[in-house]
Fold this sequence. Notes:
- The protein contains 14 helices and 17 strands.
- The protein has helices at 38-52, 77-87, 99-104, 128-139, 158-162, 173-187, 202-212, 226-232, 247-260, 301-312, 333-344, 354-362, 377-384, 390-398; strands at 13-17, 24-26, 32-34, 56-60, 93-94, 111-114, 144-147, 169-171, 193-197, 218-221, 263-265, 269-273, 282-286, 295-299, 316-320, 348-351, 372-373.
- Helix 1 packs across helix 2 (77-87), helix 8 crosses helix 9 and helix 10 runs parallel beside helix 11.
- The protein starts with 12 loop residues before the first strand and ends with a helix.
- The model has no long low-confidence stretch (mean pLDDT 95).
- Bound molecules: adenosine-5'-diphosphate (ADP) and magnesium ion.
- Adenosine-5'-diphosphate binds at residues 198-201, 223-224, 241, 296-297, 320-322, 324-325, 327, 353-356, 377.
Amino acid sequence: MQSLDDIDVAGRTVLVRADFNVPLADGPGGSRVITDDGRIVAALPTLEHLRRAGARVVVVAHLGRAKGEPVPELSLQPVADRLGELLGAPVPLASLAEAPAAVAGLRPGDVLLLENIRFDARETSREAEERQALAEELAALADVYVSDGFGVVHRNQASVTDVARLLPSAAGRLVHKEASIFGAIMADPARPFVVVLGGSKVSDKLGVIGNLIARVDRLLIGGGMAYTFLAARGYGVGTSLLESDQVETVRGFLEEAERRGVELVLPVDIVVADRFAADAQTDVVAADEIPDGWMGLDIGPRTREIFAARIADAGTVVWNGPMGVFEMTPFAGGTLAVARAMAASDAMTVIGGGDSAAAVRILDVDEDRFTHISTGGGASLEFLEGKTLPGLAVLEETA
Ligand code: ADP
Ligand code: MG
């Protein structure tokens, strides 16, 4: 895979795929405001390098779940404004139709943002010819393609894979860093290699366990996924999150962990609540004593101590998924304990989940204490599942 250092971009037009899928909220006067600009900030090293090197820069990105037609609420205009502030230079926004004229007016060092590419149905089409037609329009705008949207490299889409085959291509700084870190973790992690899993998307994450169980030394399970494991042990889980159809699979993991000598650690105590609310009545109970009608919304204090101890002497820690419903203060303690234990350790520490990364920021744990906080939840999960990511494979193929 080529990096930015392998390509000469002076005086050339470079098409950059970025991940600008930022969270937005309603602002004054019907406007939309960005609530977390982390993904825009993450693209700056690549964009600043290209500007300094004298390239004309055209950025392509998507926002939200646009379904192939323009919707004003999903315009990238707020992103163009914020990017302009961060770069200290105006960033005009152009639709695909306006793009050829807008690109023709760029000077070296200028940056242009294309409007939400998912306003065009061909971007995510399953028909290769449709994607190809869009990719050709994009490729015609530039001389070189740089892939820097790590959050989309697991997608086979026109602006991610198809266009990379039409132009000389390279990985941007962000994609290069993410791919190197996850590549190193999968190839030769410093041991003990500890993976902490939680969150709510249990079935999504079972593939990760299936692949990692042969590689890790310890697997710490918390969050919503823990209850499917507790159920597999035969415990009652009340009204906690439970994927009954996954209990058999999970029982298989418990057996495999035992056979391989992998330490699979489940919660021993649970913060339960009588309903899903910040002002619910709560209690701490043993993991095998969740009362009927109550739901587990966080790992308990004893479990936090055990998890922290299993993290403290690790060589590598990868964390995906909050330990509880951290968005509500009474259920944030478990997530905070894991974040603090990782921040305190000298291990290589990587966070690979959108909500887990958000939790670290919201709970005010020092982000600089982590080796890496991934910008791509889905992409990092697929990496950990051992899958081939099409947006990375294409860069290797064309290098
Ligand atoms: P990530 O984005 O880090 O991969 P997920 O998207 O899988 O994580 O899950 C995040 C969500 O999981 C959070 O909104 C959190 O409230 C929820 N969650 C964590 N523990 C529980 C639980 N015990 N019951 C219900 N939801 C939970
Ligand atoms: Mg999530």
